Structures are given as structure tokens and as C-alpha cells.
Amino acid sequence: MNTAPLQLRMLRVEDELSFRAALEEFKCEAQPWQFAFGFDDSVSFSDYVDQLLGHSRGIGIPADWVPNTFFVGVVDGVVVGRLSLRHSLNNFLAKVGGHIGYGVIPSKRRNGYATEMLRQVIPICATLGISKALVTCDEQNMASRKVIEACGGMFESIVECHDSGVPARRYWIHTDTKKE
């Protein structure tokens, strides 16, 4: 892992330039990945940050969503990734999406940031009353499998994702670290 510590925290207005750079980097991937949910240039960045704060409090949540917290992984003031923590599961999340979704920008991968973001969110899950967190990844995503397993993920099953047709691996992580 890089020597600079990763801080997992909610997005701040002062993150705008780094956040936008991360968005652009994800757009250039062969299979673009949704880094920011609901981000739209027609809304000011500060309003977007406020919207995310509302979602973490259960306010202004889009239909079919659950209360969720959008975290960014920051190293030396640079957004290197994001992690979404869903506070509960709806039908889709209970099958494929899980409690936690994360991604690291392509230029910052292979530095241990995904593992560190997932490690840091586990106690936060416990404070929300999530005793076991569901985390999923595409069957072929070896890097994500290693991250989940390094953070205590216990493999449960493989399910077919009807939206993408790609099989997903389901893992459970116990969030009560005192038991381990």
C-alpha cells in the first residue's frame, strides 16, 4: 500500500476538482463504471454534496433506493475511489447489489486502496445495526474477490445478474470485530 494513509469520509465541497477528475477517468474505461450516482452538471457541486448528505439521512432518496452513504477514499487530498454503503437491502440489493459497493480510479489501482476502504467501512456498518454486510462482485473480478476475502468476506453463492447477465459472487462480512 502507498505510504500516505487513506481517509474514508463523506464527499466535501472542496473535493470538486479531484472528484471530477475521478469521474473523467472512469468514463475512459473500456466498460465505464458509475462512479457518482445522480451527479449532474446542471446542479451545483455543493447542492450535490448536500443531496448525498440527505441520502445518508434518508431524505430525498430516489424511488427504489434505500438510505445510503456515499464515501470517498482520499489520499493526500486526492479522491482515489468511492464506497457506497447501503443502510438496508431492497430486493435487488439483497440479491446482487449488497450493502457495499466500491471502486478505485484506474490510475490508483493496485495500491491497497479498495481493501483499506472496505476495512474502514466495516465498523461503520456495525454502528448502523448491520451485523452482517453483503458484498458482491462480478464472478471474473479477481481483484475484488481478493479485497472482499482479505476483509473477512465469507463466500456464500454465485447468482445471475439479470441486468448484465454477468454472474455475481455473494459474500458476507461480519461487522462485529470483537468476535474475531
What is shown here, in short?
The protein has 180 residues and is an alpha+beta fold.
Architecture overview:
The protein has helices spanning 16-27, 45-56, 91-97, 113-127, 142-150, and strands at 7-10, 68-75, 78-86, 100-104, 132-138, 154-160, 167-174. The two termini are 23 Å apart. The radius of gyration is 16 Å and the shape is globular. The protein is α+β, with helices and mostly antiparallel strands and 180 residues long.
What's the SSE blueprint?
Elements: E1 7-10, H1 16-27, H2 45-56, E2 68-75, E3 78-86, H3 91-97, E4 100-104, H4 113-127, E5 132-138, H5 142-150, E6 154-160, E7 167-174
Antiparallel strand pairs: 1-2, 2-3, 3-4, 5-7, 6-7
